[in-house]
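Workshop exercise sheet. Pairs work together: one partner reads the sequence aloud, the other fills in the structure field after running the prediction. Swap roles for the next sheet.
Pair: D.N. / O.F.
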Amino acid sequence: MDEQQEGRVIIPLDGSYGAGPDSELVIVTKAEDGRQREVTYNVPYLAVATERIQRLCDMNLILGYRIVKSSQAPGLKELGL
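Structure field:
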């Protein structure tokens, strides 16, 4: 296996080993004054339940959403254990 060298496992820190790279989930709702309000959450991309969010949008409980997937986590490239 390419990830194992001399009894060690190389874990890439770009999100490809675990729950995926981080993403920004922006939920658009309507504020009390009638304006649109955007709330941003930073979550792992694979933890975003797009089907459920789309269902909330279809039921008109939220006005819309946007998911922006980051290309790679900053900092270290890999961790050797």
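Discussion prompt: Strands lie at 4-5, 8-12, 22-30, 36-44, 64-69, 78-80. What would you look at next?
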